[in-house]
Amino acid sequence: MDETQNDAVRTGGPIVPARHQTGLPLDRLILAEKPDDEAVPMDVVFVGAGPAGLAGAIELARLVRKDNEEGGGIGDVEIAVLEKAEGLGEHCLSGAVVNPRAFRELFPELKDEDFPFRAPVTQERVYLLTEGGSLRIPAPPTMRNHGNYIGSISEMVRWLGEKAEELGINIFTGFPAASLLVEGNRVVGVRTTPSGLGRDGQPTSGYMPPTDITAKVTALSEGTRGLLSQAYLEWQQVPRENPQIYALGVKEIWETKKPLDAIVHTLGWPLPTDAFGGSFMYPLARDLVAIGLVVGLDYKNLDLDVHELLQRMKLHPLFRQYLEGGEMVEWGAKTIPEGGYFALPARRSGDGIVILGDSAGFVEVASLKGIHYAMQSGIYAARAIFAALKAGDVSGERLREYDRLVNESYILSDLYQRRNMRLAFKDGFYVGGAKAGLMTLTKGAFPGGKIEMEPDAAVPRTRRPTKAFVPDGKLTFRKLDAVFKSGNATRDDIPSHLIIGVDISPEVAEFYEHMCPAGVYERDGDRLVVNAPNCVDCKATDVLGPRWTPREGGSGPKYRMM
Questions:
Q1: Alpha carbon distance 116, 273 (integer Å)
Q2: Looking at the chain, which terminus has fewer C-beta neighbours within 10 angstroms, N or C?
């Protein structure tokens, strides 16, 4: 940062997060070295046991089984799924109202009632909020959920994991992938993180070295802001028309005394008019409610705090009537890719690699949906991988079939139809809402062309202090109390997995303190204090501040109902 920029910060001028952020450590993420002699050989490895990775593994295993039963001769195909959490579903967080389309395609022999859903959507309400009131408005066409289901993403993933294990798929939990192993431009596997390192980075008595896992094809299904996906796309210089942008969602599960009879979405308060986002409240059972707030990370207020906004929001009569007298039983946070069609990488395949789901950006913000796109991308990846293995050719040219399948599917057609809808809100809530309405009516034809965006970290932030908020510990909670409800199981003496940038002024430190929902960052006078074990891997820090890297397996939250 030059002296002029320092002066601007000191005098209350704008802060641009990108100026304080380090680049991706490609030397650590892309390893052009021979795999270890004790490397574990696999044919295909899926990195991440979310909906995309598990759906892909299941479809691939079924294709292999069918081929062998019909005498096709592909033979044994060893499939592995790596998951950084200690147990399946423990790092999965979502809304989640689910379009069942991909479940039906993956399991055509089952009926909807056989799937791991909580209940069908029977009623829905949308409100425009002010600080003290609410106005019910017609549900926009993109937010109508008739035919969809309410569910817990954690429960869905555990169910998919059981189906995968029944097919003989190797699922390795507690194995975060830290690096891609490459030969030339070809990806040949991954290296996991070591475990048992002390705070100083030196091995302790419980040390376990990293493991190399080789594969003919590596499928990156890391979820939102996938680190290896970022690294591969940057290493190979794969372009996008627009940079990917993100939102941060903070969510709670409540046991309630008053039942909720409909899914609820809101717009407006508590967000400022120049921030994009909204809230949701979903009934998971008669006495169980999921509530959350999602805010685009291109917000312009240096002091905006998504966790605090959610706490304030719960005091609103619309929400308080359900929550008061109940108990918050689980809390979590996660980023969501929101760039849509124009932020997709030009290709999601290469020599020995494919990129799936949220890691590729397959989320449609207008309808608040991504799970069925993630699963569908896994299904298409499996079909392309199977054909490549049968042909004995896993080159990028052969695996480009995956891109073709995605590009000709409803994934791309849906994203294209709503290609500018999220981007319209860069001009604020009211202007964006008007434009989004016209885009819905014209199925994306208005305004034509592409709305340009800049990375979230490039957006200048200015100070707009708000009145101090003091949680009551009953309905509203401090960040550290919330993190406890995430089940965070990280060792206190683990090395920091966060790469801090340079020129972290007190003002930037305070921005990080507000930005992080888990209390990882604190301003102590002129100094930034980093409480790395608090991290719940939401990746907001990776978007706007210190870089996130994988920790030892089993670290982070242990979500059960998210």
A1: 38
A2: N
